Amino acid sequence: xxxxxxxxxxxxxxxxxxxxxxxxxxPSGGTPAQMEGPYYPRAIPDDADADLxxxxxxxxxxxxxxxxxxxxxxxxxxxxxxxxxxEIWQADxxxxxxxxxxxxxxQRDSGFQGYGRARADAAGRYAFRTIRPGQYPGRTPHIHLRxxxxxxxxxxxxxxxxxxxxxNARDGLLNRVAAPQRALLLAxxxxxxxGQRAEFDVxxx
Length: 205
Known about the structure:
- This protein is mainly β and 205 residues long.
- It has 1 helix and 9 strands; from the N terminus they run ββββββαβββ.
- It is globular and about 45 Å long.
- Keywords: Signal.
- Residues 69-97 form the Intradiol ring-cleavage dioxygenases domain.
C-alpha cells in the first residue's frame, strides 16, 4: 500500500506504515521517561503536521537523510491505544533546533519543520516523515517524543535513540537508564528507498 500522510494538522497513521517492519520482543516495563530538554516549542508552529520534511508554503525540502519514524502506542498489557497523540521535536541535519534560545538559529535549515504531531490510528500506530537528526553539541543524535494517553492523564516524555550511533556510549542521559530498559529507547532501523526507517514503540503505564 502507498504511504500517504496529510500535510497539515493531526493525522491518522495507517497500519500499512508498520507492516514492513518486523515486531521484536522488548523488555517488560513501560518506556523510560526522559527529560523534555530546553527546546520544546514555546509556541506550536503553524505547520505542525506529521511531515517534518516539508514546511507548508515553502518550495524547498528539508536537508538531511530522510527518516520514517513509526511505531505503536500500547499499554503495559500490550493493548493498542487508538487516539493517542504523539509529538516529536528534534534538531535539523546540522544539530540545530527551532527555538529562540538556539544560539545557531540563523544557520538553521528553514525547510525543516522541527516539530510535528500525529494521532495514533485504530491499531495504535503512528508515523512521521522526518530526517535523521544531526548531532547537538554534548549529546548523541536523538529525537524527543511525547505521547498523550487517549483517555487523558499525564503524558510520557522520552527520547528516541539510534543503535548505530557511536556517541551513544558517552551520552549521559541514555546511559543513566539501566539495562535492559535502555533497549526500549533504541529504535529498530532498516533501510528504505529514500533513506531509513526507525521503528519505536511507546509503552504507556
